[in-house]
């Protein structure tokens, strides 16, 4: 039971991170009459544009994070990005605040080392081989040991920022530079991973709720430079591979615990399924569920975290998404081509409304449905290609 938003008896949800995924989470929370507060490192972030109110803070600053949470006293603290002072979240949880799914899950997944060691070393789940390095010298030693090609990533980063493939030992230094420039937090530690030649990769959305653990149909995706370009649902896979994927997802999400939706990233290979990483929150590739399922990943997350049942998840149709990414940096951009994009049959567009473009920044997504995944992918690509960004009036 709860009262109306802003009434004093409202259920209050505070989102840490306010991008395109948070925007949909807020919309779903508001559909259930929840009071919403959006927090991020910059003003007018997408979720701030739909929340009841917002705060701009450095979420990696423990004191600032604590101040906002103590002032707002939310019933639910919902991390939406990795780069948060998670030690503070653990303290706040000890003091009685609820962190989604748990403060420990957000600490373990905020850096690649925490989740990788949990999955590979404690749970015994198959992963790429890996090493960690804190300096260029250590990186060179790790690359020598691992062999090339290998993948190098800052331990704290997302959407492929700072990630590169080292194809030859001579590239190690350039990879180190890329990682130092691209990491979200000013940390110098990197992970060096064996390059997995997968046949395909999927996200298995896994929901932990009062109804138990449920899975959405697997989502296939294509990534470029570590960031997603297109996704589709369902991704065809054998019954055996799906069972293996669900087993890995259940193991990892059970170990992380709490209520909410997780995006479990897996590589499908001839030698079986490999765990890659997991988001303790809705996943970018899962945007497809906005058109393919009766309850989107955002609706499912909100239901689960409020303690409501998730009795069934129905996939309504094959669906696909295709992203629109900026190629220049400016605070003076316009987006066009919507007339043409929306003329593509069974297609929709989400324009995120980010105040600035940056090179590689995701600004919008096209979503399509069709009788087949191939057709849906084709339509989504066509709709996304119709969208145009203009920079500084050009
Ligand atoms: N060890 C690997 N072998 C082969 N490809 C890899 C490996 N690690 C990552 N990749 C590729 O790079 C993509 C991004 O990697 P990863 O998910 O680790 O980065 P990320 O920055 O956390 O991305 P996001 O936040 O968008 O999930 C993967 O989806 C995959 O396509
Ligand atoms: N892969 C994770 C992911 O897609 N996260 C989404 O991107 C936003 C950051 O975008 P920005 O870097 O453009 O500000 C995050 O806030 C989240 O919505
Ligand atoms: Mg990933």
UniProtKB/TrEMBL annotation:
Keyword annotations of the record: ATP-binding, Ligase, Magnesium, Metal-binding, Nucleotide-binding, Purine biosynthesis, Transferase
Top-rank lineage group of the source organism: Bacteria
GO molecular function: transferase activity
Binding sites annotated in the UniProt record for Mg(2+): 265, 277
ATP-grasp domain location: 117-306
Keyword Ligase carried by entry: yes
Keyword Transcription regulation set for record: no
One Pfam family cited in the UniProt record for this chain: RS_preATP-grasp-like
Positions of N(1)-(5-phospho-beta-D-ribosyl)glycinamide binding: 20-21, 80, 284, 354, 361-362
Residues that hold ATP according to the record: 112, 153, 158-163, 193-196, 201
Record InterPro entries: ATP-grasp, ATP-grasp_carboxylate-amine, ATP_grasp_subdomain_1, PreATP-grasp_dom_sf, PurT, PurT/PurK_preATP-grasp, PurT_C, Rudment_hybrid_motif
EC code(s) of this entry: 6.3.1.21
Catalytic activity reported: N(1)-(5-phospho-beta-D-ribosyl)glycinamide + formate + ATP = N(2)-formyl-N(1)-(5-phospho-beta-D-ribosyl)glycinamide + ADP + phosphate + H(+)
Cross-referenced SUPFAM superfamilies: Glutathione synthetase ATP-binding domain-like, PreATP-grasp domain, Rudiment single hybrid motif
Pathway the protein takes part in: Purine metabolism; IMP biosynthesis via de novo pathway; N(2)-formyl-N(1)-(5-phospho-D-ribosyl)glycinamide from N(1)-(5-phospho-D-ribosyl)glycinamide (formate route): step 1/1
PROSITE patterns given in the database record: ATP_GRASP
Gene3D superfamilies: 3.40.50.20, ATP-grasp fold, A domain, ATP-grasp fold, B domain
Its job: Involved in the de novo purine biosynthesis. Catalyzes the transfer of formate to 5-phospho-ribosyl-glycinamide (GAR), producing 5-phospho-ribosyl-N-formylglycinamide (FGAR). Formate is provided by PurU via hydrolysis of 10-formyl-tetrahydrofolate.
Family: Belongs to the PurK/PurT family.
HAMAP family to which the protein is assigned, alphabetical: PurT (MF_01643)
Assembly: Homodimer.
Protein name: Formate-dependent phosphoribosylglycinamide formyltransferase
